[in-house]
Amino acid sequence: MMMNQMLRYGSLAFGVAALAATVALRAQDAPGGGPTAVEVSGEGKEVYEQICQACHMADAKGGGGAGAVIPALAGNPRLADKDYPTVILLKGRGGMPWFSDILTPEQMAAVLTYVRGHFNDYQDPVTVADIERVTTASPPVPDCNCTQ
């Protein structure tokens, strides 16, 4: 079991490093004026595929094994309130680590918008202003029934 955890964390660390390198290279070549909605959507999908789907699965239906339950993001009514997943990304919860020191606010907004719109029908985007508002407010982590 310890070896599985080491492999899982090693894979996660490799994915994070690869994503950071990709984002850094893109930032050097990006024109000014900020990202368009299409770029944000693409970045959200990329962050999901490189980081989130390792645990939440490609279909975002979560899973379990070795005593761990990974909540489904697809069809998850808790994501209707965009502050809920924002707090989870910023502070972590249970077995999920926080990502405030790994992802930029722009990447967090992009991946949350992608998950809420692609795997659910919540079309209002999460913005960098939302991330900053929640970061500043530091609300407590909402109760989570992580078996969903």
Descriptive report:
With 148 residues, the chain is mostly helical. It has a single domain (2-137), classed as Cytochrome Bc1 Complex, Chain D, domain 2, CATH 1.10.760. It has 5 helices and 2 strands. It has helices spanning 2-29, 37-56, 83-91, 105-118, 128-137, and strands at residues 63-65, 68-70. A two-stranded antiparallel sheet has the order 1-2. A hairpin with a 2-residue loop joins β1 (63-65) and β2 (68-70). α2 (37-56) packs across α4 (105-118), α3 crosses α5 and α4 (105-118) packs across α5. It is globular, with a radius of gyration of 15 Å. The two termini are 24 Å apart.
Number of distinct beta strands:
2
CATH architecture: Orthogonal Bundle
Distance between the termini: 24 Å
Overall geometry: globular
Note poorly predicted spans. Answer: 13-40
Mean pLDDT: 77
**How many domains, in number, for the residues?**
1
In short:
With 148 residues, this protein is mainly alpha-helical. It is built from five helices and two strands.
Task: Tell me the layout of helices and strands.
Elements lengths: L1 H28 L7 H20 L6 E3 L2 E3 L12 H9 L13 H14 L9 H10 L11
Antiparallel strand pairs: 1-2
Helix pairs in contact: 1-2, 2-4, 3-5, 4-5
